[in-house]
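Exercise 7. Predict the joint structure of the components listed below.
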Amino acid sequence: MNSFSLTHVGYLAVAAQWTIVLSLLAFVGGAVLGLILALGRVSRLAAPRRMAVAYIQVVQGTPLLVLLFLSYFGISILGLNVPPLLAAALSLTLYTSAFLGEIWRGCIEAVPRTQWEAAECLGLNRFGQYLHVILPQAARIAIPPTVGFMVQVVKNTSLASVIGFLELSRAGQVVNNSTFQPFTVFLVIAFMYFALCYPLSLASRHFERKLHVGRQ
Amino acid sequence: MLVANDLAPAGARRAALTPAATDAAAVVSVQNLVKRFGPHTVLDGVSLEIERGQMVAIVGRSGSGKSTLLRCINALESIQGGTLRVCGHALGASDKGVLRELRRDVGIVFQSYNLFPHLTVERNITLALTAVKKMAKAQAVEIAHKVLALVGLSDKAQSYPEQLSGGQSQRVAIARSLALSPQLMLFDEVTSALDPELTGEVLKVMEDLKRQGMTMVLVTHEMAFARRVADIVVFMHQGRVWEMGPPEELFTRPRTAEFAQFTSSGL
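Solution:
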């Protein structure tokens, strides 16, 4: 048995990088899909609206853990050998997109109706109304809740450890198995998660304050 | 004139948007217009002709249908009956997507300004010029400065809407519409949110516009202004045109008890 040392901290720090990679993948994929879902939710056509609602309800109603197992084992059933990173990124993307889609729908709807009307009366078509008038304003409204949700995503990447993806939490289990100092190990891990999330929380608060001032 | 109804297929609605003879005297011609919100009839057979260069003031109590009439003229509302011809475009049951062409000929200014808060005053004005009319940026900026000068706000080009007073915001909104060189301007209670001092500066801009020959329809509670400046005053009551005519005639000799009562309480 060896005791917890700086070597272990280094090992955890390397694993933390995979937490960051997974968070970024989830966030980029989730943002792209989430924007499509948000636009589908506010569409004037019934079909995209219904599909977006169905998707969001199903995904939001499924535990992330189950999504992880489904992606990992589901794709293997098709005979493909899935790297854990891919399965984890896929399930986190699905999860993130469902929540961002709903958050952003709210932000789009928070832009006053009269802004649509004014843009329409100037002759802008639906695309132009979105591009020049609605989305820039919705984006401002969206920054605080979006950054807040990013914190959730970072923490939820820890669940990817169950499918064997070696990120920060999984690395913690590995280190604990060799040192048997769970309290120390997980304290260090908690601190590392905090170090990842705190800047996001700070940014969120900063944007919130800035937006609030801008609205006065 | 082709009149589409609610059941007409999209193709027929598109055909409804046909340019009529350009020398038509009436810029706006409304015949028997009916507008319903569900079971509630808001406009109950309104007929109205507006000639080029005229300023028409629509007055009446809240809920009389005057704002709805204005919105119908700009196809912001669908209509359930009657015919509507605006700037040579014959509109039946209006289809918002198809009627975009109409918007190029008609400018509208709202009570709540509806400026775009994330854009500078200049960009508020140039947006439609570059994005809709595909104008070069330099040319659009030039027009923006010209219309800002018209409303006396040349120094505000780089300001954001939140830095403007209500009166200035409303003048920018007017400038934004003017930049598209409309044939017809609609004003929907544009001074109702302003205090008397700011109201004056906006009304002055509107009076200047009239002097330059702009055809205008305004829904207003400014009776003194309507009486002094408008060519025609229309009194609406319960979704109908109750009285209509030159202001002096109307205000000095009301023909109906409703208008007499309205003017005595309103003036």
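Discussion. Residues 40 and 239 of chain B are 10 Å apart (CA to CA).
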